[in-house]
């Protein structure tokens, strides 16, 4: 099974959020919190007048009233989330700006500032001014560091609380959330499973966290547990119905399942919440691409770039769409633009490799597949595609090496098990080939292609009984409509020195084309089953209004062996009319006359065959059909004259 051309990672506001999403989702909540906070009179504020010194944090927390404590929690959490939404600290600045504009006590900002690190250690007001002026550079960091920083922030807040405090579990849940999210920045499935454990524990402590349900859905989807992922996305939607992310993530699962109507429904729901949500727009484009409507897909991807000009996912998707349209230079131009924005993205190198592979430039493809792996050693599909590229070059040792590496990560991929089976066959490592085919069957007992591979393997080993057993299983599992593979089985037996009766059995199940029926007729003729041969020769001949030479000859010979002289003579004469210059046609009629004791006609027709150039001395002297005339003087004179 390769990575789908337009696949994208499920969206999470903490991983791939867009500027529009933080404004539409986080800030309205912040404004509501700020408005509620401002309902308290200034003199009731624990901070007192603005010039007053900031009390120690423990004094602040201990003196807050219940609602004020809750507001404080939300401020801290919203700021941390805001700081994590992008891959740079600039994400937090809009929240600071909103707080300032709402005249929130500046001491709160200072308290928050002390809770953060990095760029936010600078003067808060300077940071805001720089952001407003548009001169803040993006400070990229490893996403894992962000999540661990957030987890540490929760740890600090927990230290200020007693376990009996109702807020303690909330902090603990959020700490687990950030720890779990830190383990999702990878394709390493062991890390993902650990993330699921942490995130589910977080949900036990705080089951109403939509962010956590969304993250659990992402994690489950990464390891193929899609039904469970759907449940968590639906929970997130129920808890936060005006949050676009879980709608788009749910749509992505349905899209990958081929349920395009449901996928479209949920992508459109996401867009109804945020009309410029680029991930949903790209998702709709990927559905169009899956349905081979590449121009519609391109329109969606361009729309995404209108909203977010540096969205590499849209650029890569555009490149892939143009590749499928065979517009290779245009495709490469989009991949190149994406690389200029992010030259560490393994996905971009992978798509460039696919482009070279599609154009038959296997060496270049191998080069870029390897770069993708260097960028992400857990990029399983890059190993698989690299192995297939080596297989196309007939470098089977390298092919086996990389497909094996893929199967270490994806051990239940049936196609990969079958592919490596064929690679081992080419290496004549039949034991490993057999093992992988049988592993595929153990995973899916209806995998007809694995049965077919085993059948071919045993044919190569001349274990014909075993071959037939697995070919029979192939037919049982393939169903009656897939005649092509059944015909392949017939040809394997017919051309591979197998049992002709078995070949005939497969041809009977498979023929739809006259060429296959003609082969079946020939098999029956060879098996001296002239009645069945005649039926099939007749079908082909009638299909061509009796102007196809081979079935006409076959009918003539079948009638001869069935003892029907008049019919045999009639069709062998038709064969002569269809090909008057071929001396064999005259010989066939001579044999027919001899078979029916029409010796005079037989010698006359044999003479015409010899005049036309028939020169097979062995057949003339050994063919039993001429036994009736071989002792006649005229026959001997003809032989002496022409040989």
Describe this structure in words.
The protein has 35 helices and no strands. With 643 residues, the chain is mainly alpha-helical. Helix 17 (328-341) packs antiparallel against helix 18 (346-358).
Task: List key phrases describing it.
single chain; 643 residues; mainly alpha; 35 helices; 0% strand
Topology (SSEs and partners):
Blueprint: H1 19-37, H2 57-63, H3 66-85, H4 93-101, H5 106-114, H6 124-132, H7 143-159, H8 166-182, H9 189-205, H10 210-222, H11 226-239, H12 244-256, H13 260-273, H14 278-290, H15 294-307, H16 312-324, H17 328-341, H18 346-358, H19 362-375, H20 380-392, H21 396-409, H22 414-426, H23 430-443, H24 448-460, H25 464-478, H26 483-495, H27 500-509, H28 514-526, H29 530-543, H30 549-561, H31 565-578, H32 583-595, H33 599-612, H34 617-622, H35 633-642
Strand content: under 5%
Q: List segments where confidence is low: pLDDT < 50 over at least 5 consecutive residues.
A: 1-9, 11-97, 103-143
Overall helicity? over 70%
Rounded to an integer, what's the Rg over CA atoms?
Answer: 38 Å
Oligomer: single chain
Number of strands: 0
Biggest beta sheet attributes: none
First-to-last CA distance: 64 Å
Number of helices: 35
Question: What is the typical, i.e. mean, pLDDT?
Answer: 76
> Based on helices, strands and strand pairing, what is the structural class?
mainly alpha
The 3D shape can be described as elongated
